[in-house]
Amino acid sequence: MRTESSADENSPIALVPEIVPQSPWHVIAVEVLPGFRLQVAFIDGLQGVVDMSGLVHSPKAGVFAALADPHIFAQVKIEHGAVTWPGELDLAPDAMHTAIQKHGEWLLQ
Question: Which residue in 106, 77, 76 sits closest to 94, CA to CA?
Fold first, then answer.
């Protein structure tokens, strides 16, 4: 397994600075909680809960209806600072951050 790059001092790779996300809504951690909820943490230190129980069981769930299966819901991961699931499902991290900042949780219905 490769853990370090071995770029020469004069190679183009050595000249490119590391990209560090600056957006406060960049999600850095997600944990599945009971009841179709998630615990999330953002790069700026904000933490909170995303409650999707109303959405996944709603007749208006659309593509998110697939997440009513607990096994699929548990496949949550982070891609590029956003909470995602298989099937190209994701949540808007900026809206999530704003709601959690105001209310401590984001209730999706």
Answer: 106
Please determine, for residue 54, whether its predicted confidence score (pLDDT) is greater than 50.
yes
| Three-state SS annotation for 36-105 | CEEEEEECCCCEEEEECHHHHCCCCCHHHHHHHCHHHHCCCEEECCEEEECCCEECCHHHHHHHHHHHCE
Taking the alpha carbons at both ends of the chain, their separation in whole angstroms is 43
What is the rounded CA–CA span in Å between residue 66 and residue 74? Answer: 12
> Which burial class, exposed, middle or buried, applies to 48 when counting CB atoms under 10 A from its CB (0-12, 13-18, 19+)?
buried
Element (H, E) at 106: strand 105-107
The pTM of the full predicted model, rounded to 2 decimals, is 0.78
Domains parsed from the chain with CATH numbers: 24-107 (3.30.2020.10)
